[in-house]
Amino acid sequence: MIALSNQYTIVLDTCVLAPMPLCDTLLRLAEEPLFYVPKWSDDILRELRSTLIKMGYAPAQAGRRIAAMGAAFEDAKVTGYENLVPSLTNDIKDRHVLAAAVRCQAHAIVTSNVKHF
Asked: What is the reported pTM?
């Protein structure tokens, strides 16, 4: 479970979770002592799974990686954001990311795809 000693909340987009070196760095910063609280949604994780498979991961490997993330950061999953998606005006493919960020009151979204936000 994440200790909430630091309340700076960040939604991590698929594009920063897919490359292993970047993902590893970002998630290490979210371990004790917390630099920030990581957040993601089921939609982000589905997109991550698909991206990892496109990158050459076996489906089982992608599943284990996502399961390990969930086990390490039990409180990371954002839910209840779906009703916000239609009202957002950023790129349609990334509205779910912004909706998750709004729902969990994130301070930032970490992405390398800034043109969609």
From this structure: 0.90
